[in-house]
Write a structure and sequence with these properties.
single chain; about 5% strand; mainly alpha; two-stranded parallel sheet
Length: about 110
């Protein structure tokens, strides 16, 4: 169901952002494993140009000093997990640098 819903949205030209990476919602490891599988499948289906990865640090509780994952979770934890799942450096750069630059450029 998840892949079908997201594919349908992406087929219409929308972009899909995976935000709040590193935030704890239920079973952290299980949720992250499912998310990695979803991203890998979307990449395999050719949607890499429409995917963005980010995290959100908006509250003091998100900082490492206060028990959160801090500002480095995406780079130090999530991206290595994607690499382990055979996501290449080009795909990672596309989702974290190129797509945001293109999609978020104003003017």
């Amino acid at each position: 169901m998840l892949i079908r819903t997201r594919s349908s949205t992406l087929d219409r030209g929308a972009n899909l952002e995976f935000d709040f990476l590193g935030h704890r919602f239920g079973s952290e490891e299980a949720a992250e494993a499912r998310l990695v599988e979803l991203i890998v499948e979307l990449l395999e289906r050719g949607y890499g140009g429409q995917l963005l990865l980010s995290q959100d640090v908006a509250h003091n509780s998100h900082l490492k000093a206060n028990g959160g994952f801090g500002y480095t979770y995406l780079q130090q934890h999530f991206l290595p997990t994607l690499r382990t799942a055979a996501v290449g450096e080009g795909e990672i750069a596309q989702m974290t640098i190129e797509n945001p630059r293109r999609i978020l450029t104003v003017g």
